[in-house]
Amino acid sequence: MRILLIVLVISGTVFSSPILLLFQNQAILMNHVKVNGIETFPLPHDWSVMDVLGAESWYTEPGEKVDWEEIVKGRLVEIADTPPDKCEVVSLSPIILKKGTKHYFYNTSLRKWLVFDYSQTRNVEAKLVVKARGEVTVLLQSNGSWKAEYYLFERNLIGNVFLNISNVEKADVFLVSRPMTEEGGRVMFAKSNLVGESFHEEFETNEVKIFHVGEVEDIKKPLTVEFISTSISNIDEYYFYSFGVNEGSFGFQKSTFMKKFKTPTDLPGGTVNVVSKVSGVDLIIGKTQISDIAKDAEIELPIASSWDVRVRGELVEEREYKDLHERSWRVIVQNLKKREVKAKVIIHGRELEIVKSSLKPSKVMSDMIVFELNVPSSSEKTFEFTVKSRW
């Protein structure tokens, strides 16, 4: 049986608030409380008890749901065809709307609204009863998820995270880069005081990354919070095209506009929206997905296709040997823009070996050769190379 072990390292001097551990499909709320004997705690709506660590024993008392059928029975009601324009939704099964003290019960048999006065609308809260002496850790679980959305401006990066969870007053929020449950798996937690105040960034466990968002208050319903806003330096922009060395000649093809930079901090996977000024207005010109990225790692983002910078390839000569190809190529990079651009052309193949080239490649590997060149505005550049490759 495969066991997923997630160890959340907690220092009592650093994390005084409850801890919200938000997976991609579930949420766990960890709260440290002191108990002297037997004490009762209310449970937030839509949360259930996973466990209580350090308790001698514990149990839950379920809340009492409002039985709307019983409430309506015997009451004097008004009958209406439609409810008011603006109402609070109290229940969806059955459908109950509220405005002031007036409640509107939709009767499916009559296809009418039954209107009556009622003041008590909330369910009696469920309760957790704990027997212990000293500090215990209450683990609550609920449905939940998260999604990261980034906005890359010319020299700035803003990151927001959507927290799909509710009924949490305040918590220190951590994002986990995977679903909580998997076949044959289980989750374990441990407390430790081994880590001090230096614990600010991403914490990595076996096959799992945990990102620290920070303390968030008033999570009564799903909300979006900003967790990163930073400047980015040394952004490298270039146009990219690749083809296989064993392909045939091809006419002008679109390139891909790319941006490359080092990440200023750990980034959980999400969507990156690329923003650029067009006629003085910030507009989203591209969108791409990223996986989890560590701090100071290089990230290359494909932004958009471009006809302004295009590439043509001519297969000049071809020779075949017993187990080798030798091919000579002429590559033309055309720049129709009003400024100089950097272009990167990548050649793919198997067991590649450069025989000769008019342009020195920036990288040579057994399966890839990279050529980089600057092309002036409204012009084109040509380079030729001969390469051997395996069948």
Summed up:
By secondary structure, this protein is an all-beta fold. The chain has one helix and 27 strands.
Protein described:
Helix content is 1%, strand content 60%. It is an all-beta fold. Strand 21 (298-320) and strand 22 (324-335) form a beta hairpin. The chain has a 9-stranded mixed sheet, with no helix packed on it. Strands 1, 2, 3, 4, 10, 13, 14 and 15 form an 8-stranded mixed sheet that branches. The protein has 1 helix and 27 strands. The relative contact order is 0.14. Among the domains are: 68-117, no CATH class; 236-258 and 299-390, Immunoglobulin-like.
Topology:
Elements lengths: L18 E4 L4 E16 L5 E6 L3 E5 L6 H5 L5 E3 L7 E5 L2 E5 L2 E6 L4 E6 L9 E16 L2 E8 L3 E9 L3 E9 L26 E3 L2 E12 L3 E9 L4 E9 L5 E13 L7 E9 L2 E10 L7 E23 L3 E12 L5 E8 L4 E5 L5 E3 L2 E8 L3 E12 L1
Parallel strand pairs: 1-13, 11-19, 17-23
Antiparallel strand pairs: 1-2, 2-10, 3-10, 4-10, 5-9, 6-7, 7-8, 8-9, 11-12, 12-16, 13-15, 14-15, 17-18, 18-21, 19-20, 21-22, 22-27, 23-26, 24-27, 25-26
